[in-house]
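Researcher: Next entry in the queue.
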Amino acid sequence: MKLVTKLGTDHFAEIAENTMEQLGMDRSGVFVTEECDTGCALILVGEDSGQNEIVVVVPGACLTFSGAGGGDGEASDRRRRLRLCADAVGDEQRRGV
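Model: Structure for this entry, 97 residues:
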């Protein structure tokens, strides 16, 4: 499994980069943009149950993904899957999930 994400150049990006470095994570799938800020989410997790509740999501930089090759093959499929994930998060946010 590999993390693929896009960060801005803001404080949240700095926190994410530092955390990934401390954990020894492979960051070859981390991209950076100056177009917008890093996305973030507030997720509450029940201490006893482990159940989580996504309170708010700000997608940010992940919505600016674009692939090489002008929409062909694997890059296009990757963008489609990322868009589906972003849309699902947006749907959950609108429904209050």
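Model: The chain has two helices and four strands.
Researcher: Noted, moving on.
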